[in-house]
What we know:
cell membrane, symporter activity, mainly alpha
Amino acid sequence: MFYLAVNIIGIFVFIAIAFAFSKDHRNIKWRSILIMLVLNLVLAWFFTSFTIGTEIVKGAADGFNWLVAVAYEGIAFALPSWVHMKSMDFVTSSLLPILMIVPMFDILTYIGFLPFIIKWIGKGLAVITGQPKFESFFAVEMMFLGNTEALAVSSLQLKQMKAERDLTLAMMSMSCVTASILGAYTKMMPGQFILTAVPINIINAIIVTNILNPITVTPEEDTIAQMSGSGGDAGDASAKKEPFFSFLGDSILGAGRLVLIITANVIAFVALAALIDKILMLFNPWLTLEHILGVIMFPFAWLTGLNVSDAFQFAQYMGTKLVTNEFVVMGKVSGTINDFAPHFRAMLTVFLTSFANFSTVGMIIGAFKGLVDKKKNDLLSANVGYLLLSGILVSLLSAGIVGVFVW
């Protein structure tokens, strides 16, 4: 009971931290925040404690694993020795399936199915939460498309909105994942908690950004510009659609670049972290990057309802993820994740299920530079700390909420 109480208190501490750094305390819409918090608690309870809820997320996880298995057939055709072996390496098992899954989601976008789903889920979320239509739309959009892709297809809206709303979207972008990469996650971590984290992250991103950067949106401003297609400008409804096979070829090349980018990042970050460790250990054998990050993140980890030993281990994983990326930590724990206690396992999985890290800040700032004017870019650049704070708080809040129901 003690650790459950700490877990519950931790949720309110994370919200209090967001309040402490709020840009406008008076304009925070607490009624809307409370509705979303209750909604997230109900979702976490449903997905973790009810048979039908756990079956839904397990079924979704099995669906992604099935897609990965289908992708292996294409990989085995070109590289049979990489697939037909006792234990596939990280790139083959988790990243190469992206070459099929990304084009699949792009095809769903091309035929209009995915934009339709995003539009109506976003409208439903706006009605339930009382949030502006586009912020709700964008939260769902980035779940399916990823942060930079969602920003790209929303370029017309970003140009039309005031700079403060663009900052809110940039902060929200720190907490997304993309549906096309969930298959890679579910090959390394418990799929049930990966899929549970996705909707909870969406709502927590709205909660945290509305506390950190509350914005009043007038009815005239509360509109949704057209989602851009692959073949034309976002604002040109008559733009000619790109030929399908040209579109598909670009999608496959984009997926290939994504695989190379993730692979390069993982190799570089792991190697650089090892180099830093070697240098630090010259001064003291205990002094490693993980231990330093563990000390810094320990208070937040303990507030998720863990004992001191587990909290320090959890804090190290948290810090490593923020400095490198989620794949580095997932690769490190994938072989032992099922040996962890249920509470630890659930919260670690949820915390890792987002793009919140230092490199994502650079990606978001870079994406905005090509989409909006200098004034808006200057505002974003001046608030880099808020982007990172938003991503960390959303991950902590999501882990804490799920952790309440898993022991």
